[in-house]
Automatic annotation (TrEMBL):
Gene3D superfamilies from the UniProt entry: Periplasmic binding protein-like II
Domain of life: Bacteria
UniProt KW keywords: Cell inner membrane, Cell membrane, Membrane, Signal, Transport
Species of the source: Pseudomonas tohonis
Protein name: Nitrate transporter
Intracellular or extracellular location(s): Endomembrane system
A GO cellular component entry from the record: endomembrane system
Alphabetical list of Pfam families matching this protein: NMT1_2 (PF13379)
Length: 404
């Protein structure tokens, strides 16, 4: 890594001594083989945790379900998690409800919807062509996402529905761990997938498919992965949770400090013990350079981000509420929850604010707004109305197939 790594300021050392010292100094930190695990890998391996009295042991997980189970069993202290996954656990979707906590956002943008090479050969290379293909009444297409309440399930459902394809009625949905997406595409078990990097880029590089859409096309600067813990952990070890947040915040800031840092981070995470993928499939999109496998290349205006002056890391209440509106939209929730009340329980704004302010990082307001690909603006002000306002939904009837 570059020598210009940020050094912890002396006044931050107050957090590692006396009554503010971490209650637990050695943590097992779960992560997935994904490009956007970078800030956790950097925090654990490049000296960002030690100044806060922490030792971080990275534990790569095979699937999001395994990561969830180990986090809930206490085998992992904290983990990279899908935003919606944390809320699904908290609300008891697909299992017993367990109170959860989000300490900070880890990244924005950087996911992809890829279709298969056979579909490309058939001329299904645009959303309009996909709609026509689906409506011709042939074999139902099967799309993979990574976890039923996860971000990828929500991006895929939102994108399909925005084009008039009902994600529950018109196509099949299956769960596949992200690192297995390309193999499933190659074996023709699936016709497309939504997953994080580097797996979309690797499908392109290996000629197994093409990128039809990126997640930032759906929602520029959307919420994605978070640093998640159980609420019991946050309550039992608040100093530890704050120290961990500070270490990861510093690592996040370091990654975006220069292009050299981004490149060195891409090289680091490509290693066999982390993402275990070719650097050629990681670095370009890590830097915002995109090729879609259809002959198009561009510099993305909303690349994968880890910091953006703290705007990435703020656990906005409105971000958490949005995922609950999508759960309601697709039948994962039978009734409207107390949207704001639940978000206030899960998003640990108190710990994040303490960590960010100690590092001189601006803390924005807890709500933000954005206009998504369908022209609808989300600002968190009327979540129940927002959830009901979509033309395609599954608000009534049996629980959504996405929950299976």
């Amino acid at each position: 890594m570059s020598d210009d790594r940020l050094h912890t300021r002396n006044d931050n050392l107050a957090w590692v001594t006396g009554s503010d010292a971490p209650e637990k100094s050695t943590l097992d930190l779960g992560f997935m083989a994904l490009t956007d695990s970078a800030s956790l890998v950097v925090a654990a391996t490049q000296g960002f945790a030690q100044p806060y009295g922490l030792t971080l042991n990275l534990k790569r997980q095979a699937s999001w379900a395994t990561l969830r189970d180990k986090l809930l069993a206490g085998e992992l202290d904290a983990a990279q998690a899908l935003y919606g996954q944390v809320y699904g656990i908290h609300l008891g979707i697909g299992g017993t409800a367990t109170d959860m906590a989000i300490l900070m956002g880890l990244c924005q943008n950087g996911q992809a919807i890829n279709l298969s090479e056979p579909l490309r050969r058939a001329g299904v290379t645009t959303a309009e062509a996909l709609v026509t293909h689906v409506r011709q009444g042939g074999a139902r297409l099967t799309f993979a996402q990574t976890f039923p309440t996860g971000t990828h399930a929500m991006w895929l459902a939102y994108w399909l529905a925005a084009h008039g394809i009902h994600p529950l009625h018109d196509v099949n949905s299956v769960v596949v761990p992200p690192s297995q997406m390309v193999a499933h595409l190659q074996a023709a078990r699936i016709d497309g997938f939504c997953a994080g990097g580097p797996w979309g880029a690797l499908a392109v590089d290996q000629g197994q498919g093409f990128t039809l859409a990126t997640s930032q096309m759906i929602w520029p600067d959307h919420p994605e992965k978070v640093l998640g813990v159980t609420a019991a952990f946050a309550e039992a070890y608040p100093n530890t949770a704050r120290a961990l947040t500070m270490a990861v915040l510093e690592a996040s800031r370091f990654i975006e400090q220069s292009e050299e840092n981004r490149r060195s981070t891409a090289q680091l995470i490509s290693g066999a013990e982390y993402v275990d993928a070719p650097l050629s499939a990681i670095e370009p999109r890590f830097l915002g350079h995109y090729r879609d496998g259809l002959g198009n290349a561009w510099e993305d205006a909303h690349p994968l981000r880890f910091f953006d002056d703290g705007r990435v890391n703020m656990p906005y209440l409105s971000d958490g509420i949005w995922f609950m509106t999508q759960f309601r939209r697709w039948g994962l929730l039978r009734d409207d929850p107390d949207y704001l009340g639940v978000a206030r329980q899960v998003q640990r704004l108190d710990l994040y604010r303490q960590a960010a302010e100690a590092l001189g990082i601006e803390v924005p307001g807890p709500m933000r707004s954005a206009t998504l690909m369908d022209g609808v603006t989300w600002d968190g002000s009327d979540p129940a109305g927002y959830a009901r306002g979509f033309r395609l939904h599954a608000l009534a009837g049996t629980p959504s197939a996405l929950a299976l």
